[in-house]
Amino acid sequence: MQNPATATTESDFAELPATAAHGPLRIEYCWVNEAAGETPGHAPLALFLHEGLGSLAMWRDWPQRLCERLGMRGLVYSRPGYGGSTPRAHHVKWPVDFMTAQARDILPALLDALAIDMEERKRMWVIGHSDGGSIALLYAALFPDALAGAVAIAPHVFVEDISVESIAQTKELYETTDLRRKLSRYHADVDSAFYGWNDIWLNPAFRAWNITGELAGIRKPLLAVQGDDDNYGTMAQIDTIAERVPHAELVKLDACGHSPHRDAPDALNEAIAAFVAKRR
Hints:
With about 280 residues, the chain is of the alpha/beta class.
């Protein structure tokens, strides 16, 4: 599979053995800006966690450009159910705590499979968008010493009406327009990806999902970014993060929707670069 994250890099696959938490998994991943890893002392790692309908390919070239700006090498991967990774069986529904499972079980297992040791993890920056932003927050809380810092872009820490309403509208678009065809370019099993995400977010039981209590476990530097035109969440999300994590810094982007890396990439890259530079 050609990887649109860079012009030349092909994605690869990591095999995760079955555990009590999950069955055997094949995870699609790629490295970006690998030349940075050849510098003396080895450049820190930036790890990217995609959105609820995202994949390795849907990032396009943003991870490469950000890593070049930061002087880091990057790791981009598709979570199970997305991109070229093991698809979700169609009869399986994601549980309410699916994001916690990704942070607690899948991400550490992938790091193990790629032989990323604890010393390298301590220098790693975890960068997530939307659901991936929530997973970044959870990883930072669950493994407070296994990263250098985190960047959460348009994350969710509780469920808002605006999120559910927009996700319901997206389902209608998926079933009545060419959205399914467009998304199929980025997922080996597009229905696995779409309905895994859509079904859990529209499940009435998910309305009670809330990770604000977990945020107090975050000790490392944290940047939270939100666009003011986001139709999947409001500023209440990152304002709540600031209440629970006093050392967190917030960036609020004007004229920006749910995907700052597409809507305002220059402003986002500048904010991340300035934040990281103060902590290196």
